[in-house]
Write a structure and sequence with these properties.
The chain is of the alpha+beta class. The chain has 8 helices and 4 strands, in the order ααααααβαβββα.
């Protein structure tokens, strides 16, 4: 578990209160604003140093946030809460947890499908259908090539792995012959 995961979950509950139930896209707008701020922190060493520096007062940090509220109106108050709690450093984990919460709310599950070779559309559809049936969730698939698998695939989602690779089958055969 990442070091800020428990903290991130608490802040995600606060983010949920900012979602407009009448506007389904409001959650995606909040996520986009969070990611924009995250990109700013990653791309500007000066901005990152400013927000991560414990010597700089919270009042000064809130002042900078008030200057950018036009660009990030949905999350300005949330960022102020992060500044007050000295939790700006947990932003990456908060975004990750928020994405997972939104995914869970939508009933989707992000799956990374690793395969030795690129799969054609028919094979992808068949694998996707099999994973959906097995994990009882709508699947959002991302494919990654891993030639070391030799054949088959490995499907990975948060807390779940389905290994149908040739390498795994060889390993299982080796173990059964050893026993």
């Amino acid at each position: 578990m990442p070091r800020n995961a428990a903290v991130a979950r608490r802040y995600v509950r606060a983010l949920h209160t900012l979602i407009d139930d009448k506007n389904p896209s409001s959650a995606l707008k909040l996520l986009a604003e969070l990611k924009a701020f995250q990109v700013t922190l990653k791309n500007s060493k000066d901005v990152a140093k400013f927000f991560f520096n414990p010597v700089i007062s919270k009042a000064d940090k809130r002042g900078v946030l008030s200057e950018i509220k036009a660009k990030l109106p949905g999350i300005e108050k949330f960022l102020e809460i992060l500044v007050e709690g000295n939790r700006v450093s947990a932003l990456d984990e908060i975004i990750e947890e928020f994405e997972q919460a939104l995914e869970s709310d939508s009933g989707e599950l992000s799956v990374v499908l690793e395969s030795a070779r690129p799969l054609n559309e028919a094979s992808l559809d068949e694998v996707k259908s099999m994973i959906q049936d097995r994990w009882k969730r709508k699947i959002k698939l991302t494919t990654v090539l891993k030639p070391e698998l030799l054949g088959g695939f490995v499907a990975r989602a948060k807390g779940r792995v389905l290994d149908a690779s040739v390498v795994n089958q060889f390993e299982m055969l080796k173990q059964s012959l050893s026993a």
